Amino acid sequence: MKVKISTVAMPIMGLSIGMISALSLSPAASGTVETRELDLVDQADVQTVWSATISETSHQLPEGMDFPSEAPPLFQNTDEGYVNVFERGLFESVIRHYWRCAWLAEAADSSAEPASDQVRAGAETPNSDDELNRFVETLPQESVGEFSTYQSEIREAAASSGSSPEQVEYEMDCEGLKW
After folding, report:
1. Which domain holds residue 96?
2. Residue 79 lies in a domain
3. How many domains does the chain fold into?
């Protein structure tokens, strides 16, 4: 039986999902190799883990948006002859990607009501600026520098296209997501 370990999402997810690796190997001074144990999810448990990750996440979406109830296509077995397994951390990374895309869409939507005027359950609803700025805090430390470089490139592309950085990033990283 062939096993395919999926740990990095589709290219469309770009740097948004952070740096998730299947196996962390780093040569030590003694010439030995450090490894870490993987927490893998097999295909039969994908939907259960997806649903649990959604219910456990602290990421709030803009009003009227929900995380997809079905696990995204990334988690579907499409290669005959292979059994897909996924690192558990990938589920939170994909949730984080949906969260960022939802707030990018909110920021890019010029018809959106100002967040300071919105109220949900007696508390002020988070606004897109706050949520998009908070995103970097959720990244693995080793991804922060790459994300900063990516954001600089997005701003340059936005300036040359006349679009907002949020619109450019949404078009590059989020269009085509199944909600």
Report:
1. 2-173
2. yes
3. 1
Residue 178 lies in a domain: no
Q: What is the residue-level pLDDT of the chain in tens, covering all 179 positions?
A: 555 555 444 433 444 433 333 333 334 444 555 666 778 999 999 999 999 999 999 999 999 999 999 999 999 877 788 888 999 999 999 999 999 999 999 998 843 444 444 433 434 667 888 999 899 999 889 999 999 999 999 999 999 999 999 999 999 999 888 87
3-state secondary structure the chain: CEEEEECCCCHHHHHHHCCCCCCCCEECCCCCEECCCCCEEEHHHHHHHHHHHHHHCCCCCCCCCCCCCCCCHHHCCCCCCEEEEEEHHHHHHHHHHHHHHHHHHHHHCCCCCCHHHCEECCEECCCHHHHHHHHHHHCCHHHHHHHHHHHHHHHHHHHHHCCCHHHHHHHHHCCCCCC
